[in-house]
Amino acid sequence: AQSVTQLGSHVSVSEGALVLLRCNYSSSVPPYLFWYVQYPNQGLQLLLKYTTGATLVKGINGFEAEFKKSETSFHLTKPSAHMSDAAEYFCAVSEFSGNQFYFGTGTSLTVIP
Amino acid sequence: ETGVTQSPTHLIKTRGQQVTLRCSSQSGHNTVSWYQQALGQGPQFIFQYYREEENGRGNFPPRFSGLQFPNYSSELNVNALELDDSALYLCASSLGRGRGELFFGEGSRLTVL
């Protein structure tokens, strides 16, 4: 089975600072990788995804992530944090032939003014 | 284009009761997946329906059951509710089974007393 590890359940950054949220996965086959964001009392919204091709993926709201197969990682970054980025972020993985997504336990991002 | 809608948004039940949650998939999507998100956790896969047939199930007991209708809307039924069933239940629709991007509704918050 797949598994996803998100290091750091809570991350705090100052407004304008770099955001780095970590995600490592375990998979015996090439995975599809996703980052989702969840605002309070809402569902999950897709930020970005990696399926095939370029390993550096750009998403919405200035976020990007890089798939590193050798490190089994898919860390999420944003050069400059904005107050509106405060939310819960989930990394997820699915297999090419799979029908389910495996989610990490989430990282809560706080942006300090 | 309408997104994924879920009802009810909040509900309270007592142990032993039964509950039905409903989901309308995004226009054009033929696959619906259900996830359980306990407080402070990532979503856990319950099952998926593709063209009215169950297409995969997570590690949930048989008292969790589902249904998909010809218009691709779906229901999640939970019998004999337990306290641990208290969670946010998320419905996600996609086009085709497998690795398709999931589009989530805002969820149904179930509290079991």
* Class by SSE composition of chain A: mainly beta
Which secondary-structure class do the elements of chain B indicate?
mainly beta
Give the radius of gyration of chain A: 13 Å
Radius of gyration of chain B: 13 Å
Return the average pLDDT of chain A rounded to an integer: 92
Large-scale geometry of chain B: globular
Pattern of helices and strands of chain B:
EEEEEEEEEEE
Query: What is the molecular shape of chain A?
Result: globular
Euclidean distance between termini CA atoms of chain A: 41 Å
Total strands of chain A: the figure is 12
Number of helices of chain A: 0
Poorly predicted parts of chain B: none
The largest β sheet of chain B comes out as: 7 strands, mixed
- Oligomeric state of shown chains: heterodimer
Mean pLDDT of chain B: 93
- SS summary, helix count of chain B: 0
Q: How much helicity do the residues of chain A have?
A: under 10%
Characterise this structure.
The complex is a heterodimer of chains A (113) and B (113). Chain A has 113 residues and is mostly beta strands. Chain A is built from no helices and 12 strands. In chain A, strand 8 and strand 9 form a beta hairpin. Chain A starts with a strand and ends with a strand. With 113 residues, chain B is an all-beta fold. In chain B, strand 5 and strand 6 form a beta hairpin. At the A-B interface, strand 5, strand 6, strand 10 and strand 11 of A face strand 5 and strand 10 of B.
